[in-house]
């Protein structure tokens, strides 16, 4: 059974790991993978038809914990403990929920102190007691009547007519005072771990098509004196078609992974008459996972010739019929949304899922040695 420390408005964890509000989804998954022998039977819940309208959820079924992530920015928004019998909980090092200590309303009062009068939800038959960044829900279905209190004389828990021994059914950790309107906070400094994250990615274009990307990057604690000057810094970097490996490394740093292409499913659609001639060496990608960007380099010239960037809304309307892309027979067979449709428009390829949401955008461009000097490039 997990033994976890509750930090209101911040996190749930122990000495080995911590789920912190604002943490990226990929980082939470990395923690679960690292501790897979202890944290087992994890479900990933999402909406197939409207994935951006519903939270992404990691359900730790064995431990009675749900991690709710904002579907758009994929940062941790709410930590829910929905089965307190499966986990030990403590606050400031003192347990308030174990097999020997029941999380009664008296125990919550003793551990966390007084707060504002709670709210009774008749539809759910739950009584919600709220602290800043922390909420408890008590089950009332066995009670003869709803709790009562006088608003003019409500002074904390003592004013609520709640039967002794009522126990907590659910606990929530979130940012702010209102659980219903809570949003995922900015990523905390502790989650950067020396990585660089993209706040936004803009496409640099001229009248013909894309020239490259402008990335606004966020980093924290770089260089000497990290603890003395721990704050988030924002920098801008531009990457252009025709940039060398050295240009990219200088602008973005080392990639998380280098991937060498073994096949090209789109090669048959190339207008080149030599499209069936096998290449003597493989092109390769620089994978920047925390930026959501991959850069493809030509194996002969080692210059950037293609981008990939994940986006959330349609940027154009193609005129031709789409190409159907099946991933099941390739190395990347983990796409849960099935086959996708690829539409071409102005040296861009939009990969669209069957639910009409865009999975990725690929930008193509001929190498342009002078493109870096083109100050007139417009970001869209």
Record keyword descriptors for this entry.
single chain, 380 residues, mainly beta, 8-stranded antiparallel β-sheet, 35% strand, disordered C terminus, PHAF1/BROMI, Phagosome assembly factor 1, PHAF1
Describe this structure in words.
By secondary structure, this protein is mainly β. The two termini are 51 Å apart. The C terminus is likely disordered.
Structural class: mainly beta
What sort of overall outline do the alpha carbons produce when their principal axes are compared?
A: elongated
Strand content: 35-45%
Helical content, roughly?
under 10%
Q: Residue ranges: pLDDT <50 for 5 or more in a row?
A: 149-159, 310-316, 369-379
Order of helices and strands: EEEHEEEEEEHEEEEEEEHEEEEEEEEE
Radius of gyration: 26 Å
Largest sheet properties:
8 strands, antiparallel
Distance between the termini: 51 Å
In round numbers, the mean pLDDT is 80
**Which strand order do you get reading across the main beta sheet?**
4-5-6-7-13-12-11-10
Number of helices: 3
Count of beta strands: 25
């Amino acid at each position: 059974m997990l033994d976890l420390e509750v930090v209101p408005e911040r996190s749930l964890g122990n000495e080995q790991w911590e789920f912190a509000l604002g943490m990226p989804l990929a980082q939470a998954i990395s923690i679960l993978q690292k501790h897979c022998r202890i944290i087992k039977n994890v479900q990933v819940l999402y909406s197939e038809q409207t994935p951006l309208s519903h939270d992404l959820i990691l359900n730790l079924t064995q431990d009675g914990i749900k991690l709710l992530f904002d579907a758009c920015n994929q940062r941790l928004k709410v930590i829910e403990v929905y089965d307190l019998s499966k986990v030990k909980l403590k606050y400031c090092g003192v347990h308030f929920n174990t097999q020997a200590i029941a999380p009664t309303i008296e125990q919550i009062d003793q551990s966390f102190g007084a707060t504002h009068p709670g709210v009774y939800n008749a539809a759910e038959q739950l009584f919600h007691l709220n602290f800043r960044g922390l909420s408890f829900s008590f089950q009332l279905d066995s009670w003869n009547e709803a709790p009562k209190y006088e608003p003019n004389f409500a002074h904390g828990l003592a004013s609520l007519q709640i039967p002794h021994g009522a126990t907590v059914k659910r606990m929530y950790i979130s940012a702010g005072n209102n659980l219903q309107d809570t949003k995922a906070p900015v990523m905390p400094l502790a989650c950067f771990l020396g990585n660089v994250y993209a706040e936004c990615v803009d496409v640099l274009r001229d009248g013909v098509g894309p020239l490259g990307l402008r990335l606004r990057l966020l980093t924290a604690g770089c260089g000497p004196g990290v603890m003395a000057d721990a704050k988030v810094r924002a920098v801008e970097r531009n990457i252009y078609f025709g940039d060398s490996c050295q240009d990219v490394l200088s602008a973005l740093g080392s990639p998380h992974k280098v991937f060498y292409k073994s096949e090209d499913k789109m090669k048959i659609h190339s207008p080149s008459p030599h499209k069936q001639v096998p290449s003597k060496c493989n092109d390769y990608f620089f994978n920047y996972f925390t930026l959501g960007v991959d850069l493809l380099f030509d194996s002969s010239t080692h210059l950037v010739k293609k981008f990939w960037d994940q986006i959330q809304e349609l940027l154009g309307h193609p005129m031709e019929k789409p190409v159907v892309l099946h991933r099941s027979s390739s190395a990347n067979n983990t796409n849960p949304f099935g086959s996708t449709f690829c539409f071409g428009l102005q040296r861009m390829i939009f990969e669209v899922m069957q639910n009409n949401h865009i999975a990725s955008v690929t930008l193509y461009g001929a190498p342009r040695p002078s493109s870096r000097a083109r100050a007139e490039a417009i970001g869209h």
